[in-house]
Backbone:
């Protein structure tokens, strides 16, 4: 079964955790100094927030899958689109090791499809990086992100 993923960049993590905990009637399932995540079943969503210097607001959307087969199915769907698809296998990002594919919608919103393989103790491959989102093909976002399947320095590599 697939789960919607929403990631929002925030200015004040503590205030945002308080707000979203009240909204969802649940404490985060993961809480770090710069990141929090709720794995909710009602609504079925993986909702994450981070305070890592990105412009506040929607960071990216995604679909989290539960198996390699579901990820392969999502990859096939993305390959049919008229957009670049970025593959990241075994990548370290958001305190997790995952296989993922990224695509950008016509409005410039990054969409992540991914299968989480394991949790890790750091935000990403390089703790100093503040990113995991590929650069949209149709719009620039003010953060450090890979460009069209080629990783930029310091990003989730």
Residues:
């Amino acid at each position: 079964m697939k789960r919607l993923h929403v990631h929002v960049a925030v200015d004040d993590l503590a205030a945002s955790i308080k707000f979203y905990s009240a909204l969802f009637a649940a404490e985060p399932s993961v809480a770090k100094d710069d990141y929090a995540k709720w794995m909710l079943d009602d609504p079925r969503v993986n909702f994450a927030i981070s305070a890592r210097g990105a412009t506040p607001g929607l960071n990216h959307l995604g679909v989290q899958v539960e198996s390699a087969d579901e990820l392969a199915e999502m990859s096939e769907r993305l390959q049919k689109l008229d957009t670049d698809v970025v593959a990241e296998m075994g990548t370290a990002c958001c305190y997790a090791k995952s296989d993922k594919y990224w695509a950008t919608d016509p409005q410039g919103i990054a969409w992540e499809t991914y299968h989480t393989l394991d949790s890790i103790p750091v935000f990403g491959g390089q703790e100093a990086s503040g990113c995991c989102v590929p650069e949209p093909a149709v719009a620039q976002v003010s953060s450090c992100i890979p460009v069209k399947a080629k990783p930029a320095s310091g990003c989730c590599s």
User: Anything to note?
Assistant: The first strand starts at residue 3 and ends at 9. Helices lie at 13-24, 68-79.
